[in-house]
Amino acid sequence: MLSFGSRQALAYAPGVDSSMYYPDIAAYIVKQTDGKKVYMTKDADRIIQPASLTKILTSIIAIESGKLDQEVLIAKEATLVEPTKAGFKPGDRVKLVDLVKAAMVSSSNDAAFAIAIHLSGSVERFVTAMNYRAKKIGMKRSNFTNPAGFDKGIYAGNISTAEDLLVLTEYAIRNNLFNEIAQLESVLVTELNSRKMILLKTHNKLLAKYPYAVGIKTGFTRRAGKCLIARAQKENRDLLLVMLNAQGDRWLIAEEMFEKAFAKQSGRDYAANEGIDVNYRPWKR
Q: CA-CA distance, 273 to 36, in Å (whole number)?
């Protein structure tokens, strides 16, 4: 596996424009999606809490389970989590695919826990599955303690790196349904007992602010800070951005980073993970 390297020296490494260095972000990567070019990077192997970016792994496991049409009985345990929540109640019934949408679009913690309990019987067993899948995908320095991204108390130790999260995202975007969900600005979820419709809206303001954005996921906890994984497509170019613990306006920063990367003619030639073929057809919004 080729490393993106670490610490501030990367800002001044050969092929990296020092004007693309952002000291107020703990770790970041901007990379060509359908290729191997990296346009900017800092501390990509630094271990940081990923907050709700964790839900990307939870969601792709659910999508690949082949059970998206199943009805999920919402367990009481799933409703007791801290916000953000969709507001499900114990005994509610919701399609698994709608729980994935709730987890990805509005970052609903109750949806993430309901997914875990339905697929594995308990949160603990699902976490085991998460860590197994993460290693199989190629995430080398990550450890997950829960399906939502909590990182304190009994869930302390939920950690990843920008490099690992890039590997995860490049894996997830191979799936068309994941891509469709990741770019939604809102979703209607149906509670099947009452037929009540629940409107959930995205926290990803980049989708509305930046016309080339096509997803993917936001995250925030006090320990993790403001996190973002974003994808943008412009003039037949396709980029991914991973941003962890950002200070300031992450939407403006992300737009600036994308525009600088789009303006560059070439980047450094690295593969995020040699075991994953990144030369697939890019998905279009």
A: 10
Structurally, the chain folds into a number of domains equal to 1
Confirm whether 285 is domain-assigned: no
Identify whether 230 is part of a domain: yes
Catalytic entry in 107, 108, 120, 142: 107
pLDDT in tens, 11-54: 334 455 555 789 999 999 999 997 889 999 999 999 999 999 99
Residue at 284 is within a domain: no
In a domain, 56, yes or no: yes
Half-sphere exposure of 95 (CA within 13 A, CB side): 14
CATH code: domain of residue 163 = 3.40.710.10
pTM value > 0.85: yes
Catalytic site residue from 37, 42, 55, 217: 55
43: left (phi over 0), alpha (psi -120 to 50) or beta: left
Residue 107 appears among annotated catalytic residues = yes
Residue of 52, 106, 108, 160 marked catalytic: 52
What is the rounded average pLDDT for all residues in the chain? 89
